[in-house]
C-alpha cells in the first residue's frame, strides 16, 4: 500500500499547467501526453512528450519537463505530474492524470530523489514520494 498525501491547491494548479500544454500542442500520433514539474523554487516547467515512429525512441513528457527545467538552471524538483489527452476516436472529453512509466520513475528519482508524483490511486488524485513508486531502486553506488 502506497503512502500518499492529499493534493493542495498548488498541486491542482500543476495539473492545470500539464493540461494547458497538451491542449495547446496535441497532435494525433505525435503529442498526447503533457507534463509539468514544479521546482523547489516554485517555478513550473511544462512540456509535451515527443512521439517517434520507432516507439523506443519516444521521449516522455516527464523527461521533457525535467529537461526544460534543468536547461533553465532549475535542478531541484518538488512535484511532477503527467496527463493524457483524449484521441479524437475516444469518447472522453477531458485530460486525465497518468502514472509515470518505469523509465520515468527511474529518471525522476535519479534527478530528484525527494520529488513527489501526482497519480490516481484508489479512485482519487493523490501525491506520493517517487521512491514509493520505485522500491529497491537501482543504484550504481557501492555501499
UniProtKB/TrEMBL annotation:
Keywords per UniProt:
Hydrolase, Metal-binding, Zinc
The source's domain of life comes to Bacteria
One GO MF term on file is: cytidine deaminase activity
CDD domains, A to Z: cytidine_deaminase
The protein's matches in Pfam families, at most eight in alphabetical order, are given as: dCMP_cyt_deam_1
Q: Which GO terms describe its cellular component?
A: cytosol
Q: Which GO terms describe its biological process?
A: nucleobase-containing small molecule metabolic process; pyrimidine-containing compound metabolic process
Chain ranges of the CMP/dCMP-type deaminase domain: 9-141
UniProt similarity note: Belongs to the cytidine and deoxycytidylate deaminase family.
PANTHER family per UniProt: CYTIDINE DEAMINASE
Record protein name field = Cytidine deaminase
Amino acid at each position: 500500500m502506497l503512502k500518499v498525501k492529499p493534493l493542495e491547491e498548488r498541486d491542482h494548479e500543476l495539473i492545470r499547467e500539464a493540461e494547458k500544454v497538451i491542449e495547446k500542442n496535441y497532435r494525433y500520433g505525435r503529442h498526447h501526453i503533457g507534463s509539468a514539474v514544479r521546482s523547489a523554487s516554485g517555478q513550473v516547467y511544462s512540456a509535451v512528450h515527443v512521439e517517434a515512429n520507432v516507439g523506443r525512441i519516444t521521449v516522455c513528457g516527464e523527461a521533457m519537463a525535467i529537461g526544460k527545467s534543468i536547461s533553465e538552471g532549475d535542478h531541484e524538483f518538488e512535484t511532477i505530474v503527467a496527463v493524457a489527452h483524449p484521441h479524437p476516436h475516444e469518447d472522453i472529453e477531458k485530460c486525465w492524470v497518468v502514472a509515470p512509466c518505469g523509465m520515468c520513475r527511474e529518471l525522476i528519482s535519479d534527478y530528484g530523489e525527494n520529488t513527489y508524483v501526482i497519480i490516481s490511486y484508489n479512485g482519487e488524485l493523490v501525491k506520493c514520494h517517487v521512491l514509493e513508486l520505485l522500491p529497491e531502486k537501482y543504484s550504481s553506488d557501492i555501499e
